[in-house]
Amino acid sequence: MGGYQKGFVPEKGFTHGGKFHSDDVFATAFLRILNPKIQIIRGFEVPEEFDGIVYDIGRGEFDHHQKDKEYRENGCPYAAFGLIWRAYGAGYTGKEEAKRFDEQFIQPLDESDNTGCDNIIAKIIEEFNPSWDSEDSYDDCFKKAVGMAETILRNHFESVKGIQRGRELVQQAMRESDGRILVLPVYAPWKQEVIGSSYQFVVYPSNRGGYSAQGVAVSSADNTLVCDFPKEWWGMEADALAKMSGIESLRFCHPGGFLVAAETKEDAVRAAEYALQAKE
Question: Rounded to an integer, what distance in angstroms lies between the CA atom of residue 182 and that of residue 200?
Answer without folding.
Answer: 8
